[in-house]
Amino acid sequence: MSRKAKVSDPITIAKPHTLKKFELISRYVDEWARKILGYPKSQGIIYIDCMCNCGMYYDEQGNLIEGTAIRVVKLLNKIVLNYPGKKAVLYFRH
């Protein structure tokens, strides 16, 4: 008997193209955030992801992998520290 998946459960398996998507979005957000936060009149950034799922996946070898939402949170938390007085607002919807 299978159980119903919870929102916090990892998605079963992230295929190689999904892993590449995680990498590409992370690289894009890194450059985008630094560009926006670097503008003198910028007060910060807002990031919205309305299709983020649970945030954790397994790769084809069974390793637990962080998805886009978790990668973006970690990245923006680190980047915004270099821009005093500015903030990052993140909104995730599953």
For the report, how would you describe the main beta sheet?
2 strands, parallel
Percent helix range: 25-40%
How many strands? 4
User: If you average the pLDDT, what whole number results?
Assistant: 88
**Strand content range:** 15-25%
Give me the secondary-structure topology:
Layout (H helix, E strand, L loop, with lengths): L15 H23 L5 E6 L6 E3 L5 E3 L1 H13 L6 E6 L2
Helix pairs in contact: 1-2
Can you characterise this structure?
With 94 residues, the chain is an alpha+beta fold. The protein has one domain. Helix content is 38%, strand content 19%. It has two helices and four strands, in the order H-E-E-E-H-E. A two-stranded parallel ribbon has the order 1-4. A hairpin with a 5-residue loop joins strand 2 and strand 3. 12% of the residues are buried. The mean pLDDT is 88.
Quick summary:
Helix content is 38%, strand content 19%.
Any key phrases for this structure?
94 residues, alpha+beta, two-stranded parallel sheet, two-stranded antiparallel ribbon, elongated
